[in-house]
Amino acid sequence: MPSPHSHIDGAADEALLDILTGPDPQVVKKTFVRRDEPLDPLLLAAAAASGPHVTRNHYAHDFFPPIMSPQASGSWDWTKYTGQESASKANGTRLTYVSRQAPRRQRLSVDDAEKENEQPQDIDSLKPTDKTPLMKKRRPSLASSLNSDSKPRQKSSSSTETVPAPVISPNSSPLKVKCMARTRIPTPHGPAFLHIYHSDRDQKEHLAIVVDPAQFSETPNEPAIAPPIRSQSLDSIWSDTETEMERITRGAYVGRLTQHSQHASNPLTPHDHPSDDIPAPLIRIHSECFTGETVGSMRCDCGEQLDEAIRQISQPITIGSGPSRTTIPGRGAVIYLRQEGRGIGLLSKIRAYNLQDMGHDTVTANLMLGHKADERAYDIAGAILRDLGMAGDEEGHLVSEAVRVLTNNPDKVQALEQEGIRVVERVPMIPRSWQKKKAAERKPKLVHMDTQDEVRIVSAATVVGGGDVHGEDLDKYLRTKVLRMGHMLPLWMDDEVQSDI
Ligand SMILES: Nc1nc2c(ncn2[C@@H]2O[C@H](COP(=O)(O)OP(=O)(O)OP(=O)(O)O)[C@@H](O)[C@H]2O)c(=O)[nH]1
Fold first, then answer.
1. Which domain holds residue 247?
2. Per the UniProt record, which residue ranges are transmembrane (predicted)?
């Protein structure tokens, strides 16, 4: 016989069952697929975390200013971590969304005012034959004016930032560099001298890869056809007690260093201006790219560019005509600056890559992380070139050679001129994959990449002496450089890619 309380017990049992098993799973309703663009999670977060003063036009934003600031990023030192961020959480203070960029209206009005005062400069109009010294009164270096370039340049180099960005170095004394050591490096393109430079502005070891094989002459004391590219700071005598062997060990030697041949160099006296027949040395200012140069990433063409620069600089040069026609070894240098990720550091570059995978281009990705599109400076490169005898002296007199610069980046040419380097020619760097217009012409080589159902052969591109890089990622990267960063490069992509633009 059922108990009089059976219905009550049944309800209690059901409630108990609900507690033990949880509620019925929700039935997912089928809805229409959204047809508008997916919302950018960063912008949504921005809107949620800030007031109406932050709009979608506030690009220079981030949630972690102490970590993400350009100064801190890349050199983030966890020993300096104070735990403030977590402390603020514990106190209930939430991290706020920070915009370090002035309202768009304000920025545009400053841009307009600047454009009115601006004199257009056409660097392509530099004539290689113009031998008149162009040494100008030295202007402030790029590092000191770095604050003024935080907006992506859209075909024009005029951009001004109204909110002060971090100052790299408040030091106004002339920048000093010193070549600490030099050694011979055999490369697939021929021998080079690797120079290690220290500066009084940062703790990094910048490099100069000097190509000047004439310095291996068996008779090093005979005058060479072209002036040797040598470091004045390396060749100088560092102290009264420094021995000849110490000088040779740090690289201050002439000729080929062997077990039997060890000749210390003389402190360099400024050499004569070279004959007009000899073309100015070919140089490249290159910025560090761990992913492209060491790992072999094909997201960018940095490794290929480094290889191509050393190759082009090493090409023999024919001078003179008729019976006096002769060939001399190629000469020049790659100045390798430790400014990874266009100056934002490897950590931020890796984060930027993830934003790029989510559909943003390389410029926007930098801006979304609170960086500028390009945070590099070239004052150290200028000082290294001066030390290698490729610029005027402190008074601005032309004591040495002009240069030809391998680059597509107008900022580099302008920065070198500001540093007192006389640039007589810009030599474009055409991506190898763009030179071979048809994909079929690309000859893959060396590396086999196994995937589950196919074996693809890709090119071992980015080591010095390797092939060319190519692919969808690279095409996007190069297109952004041309269309958003003003790089002076015709869009020589495959026909099918070009038609998409
Ligand atoms: N932030 C960021 N940096 C990148 C990316 N891809 C490459 N880089 C960096 O860009 C820099 C490449 O600079 P350079 O090789 O000097 O060349 P460039 O300024 O593009 O100009 P060119 O002289 O014409 O080659 C290196 O520091 C790379 O690490 C990217 O997607 N994002």
1. 177-339+376-431
2. none
